[in-house]
Amino acid sequence: METTRLIIVAVGGQGNLLSSRVLGEAALLAGVPVRMSEIHGMAQRGGVVESAIVFGDAKSTIISDGEADILVGFEPSETLRALNKCNSDTVTVTNLAPAPPFTVAIGRGVYPDIDRIQSLIREKTRRLIALDATALAREAGNVLAVNMVLLGAMTQTGIIPLTADPIRETIQTKTREAFVETNLKAFDLGFQQAECCLVE
């Protein structure tokens, strides 16, 4: 089976690890070989959390610079920071709603311009799907469902070897019962929106 390499980046508290677990379980459900690894960087203080997921016949979860087939960013500046993992064939999915770091909040830093971030991503990669996942999560009923919105958008790309069905089934069985309906709605909103946001 062909290998597909996925990088997911977020800041602590955005649900990166849950989305990775959902993908891992969905891959097992679909009979797709999968390997995963995670990097936690001061996540409780809003630090970066990075997941590497490799689908297919791979021996390692290490995704070196330039090797990612798809990059999913839960926060625009973190997407930009992970751009070194991409190449000219990479597809990128990013949330456009920023989560500025503390230094920006206290006036000691400047958040990068969102349009500039998108331009830099487009220059380096094949395709960009950029959407306000935070607004879609709020529409689904829970602003914390950004991760599910982005899972839906990523699935719409067709890059990973999973269809929506095993992912939706895993959301139903592996996320908290109180949030299942909201999570499924968020996933579907992301899936639908990504079709409109495709940029070659």
Strand proportion: 15-25%
- CATH A-level architecture: 3-Layer(aba) Sandwich
This entry's quaternary arrangement is single chain
**CATH class annotation:** Alpha Beta
Name the CATH superfamily classification: Pyruvate-ferredoxin oxidoreductase, PFOR, domain III
Instruction: Give the total of beta strands.
Output: 7
Helix and strand content put the structural class at: alpha/beta
Mean pLDDT, rounded to whole units?
91
What is the makeup of the main sheet? 7 strands, mixed
Radius of gyration: 16 Å
- CATH fold name: Pyruvate-ferredoxin Oxidoreductase, domain 3
**Topology as a string of helices (H) and strands (E):** EHEEEHEHHEHHHHE
Unreliable segments of 5+ consecutive residues: none
Question: Helix proportion of residues, in percent?
Answer: 40-55%
**What order do the strands of the largest sheet run in, or round the barrel if closed?**
2-3-1-4-5-6-7
Number of helices: 8
Tertiary shape: globular
- Terminal CA distance reads 27 Å
User: How many domain modules?
Assistant: 1
Structural features, described:
Strands 2-3-1-4-5-6-7 form a seven-stranded mixed beta sheet, sandwiched between helices. It has a single domain (4-199), classed as Pyruvate-ferredoxin oxidoreductase, PFOR, domain III (Pyruvate-ferredoxin Oxidoreductase, domain 3). The protein is 42% helix and 20% strand. The chain has helices spanning 16-30, 76-81, 102-105, 114-124, 133-140, 146-157, 164-174, 180-197, and strands at residues 4-11, 34-40, 48-55, 70-73, 91-95, 127-131, 198-199. The two termini are 27 Å apart. Helix 5 (133-140) packs across helix 6 and helix 7 (164-174) packs antiparallel against helix 8. It is built from eight helices and seven strands. With 200 residues, the chain is an alpha/beta fold.
